[in-house]
User: What shape does this take?
Amino acid sequence: MKNLSRRGIRILAAVGLAVPATLAFAGPAHAETNPRCADSVQIGATAYVTVGGQTAASVKQYKGCGKNYAYTYVWQQYRASHGSYQVCTSIVTGSTLRDLQCSSGPDVWSSGANTLSVCTRALGGISDVAQKETEVRC
Assistant: This one.
């Protein structure tokens, strides 16, 4: 798991650097409405990304419409005290990132991974700053 975390950070950092970041101070995200599957439901507990002792983001895993989805939301308190950033999220199976998606924030949904038949977790993070994984769900 430790190797995946380091690998995940490198991948999130590389993707974050490859996608132009913009300053994003949008209103609240619609965290409970998956734009790709309105009937999706959260599975497992929410994981929290912390930066300098401050809760910076939430990471959740959803299932619905025959797929697993990862969702990451950057909290307003982090956005208010930081400039531009990149937020990324992915479904993880074993040590493989699936369906990695990134955005300039404040939130990002994965597009859905066909992984309902295997154990998965969601990975989310803020560019190369910090990341967190949810618990494994089978």
Notes: Confidence is low (pLDDT under 50) at residues 13-31. Residues 2-22+39-133 form one domain. The beta strands are 41-51, 54-64, 67-74, 87-93, 96-103, 107-109, 121-126, 130-133.
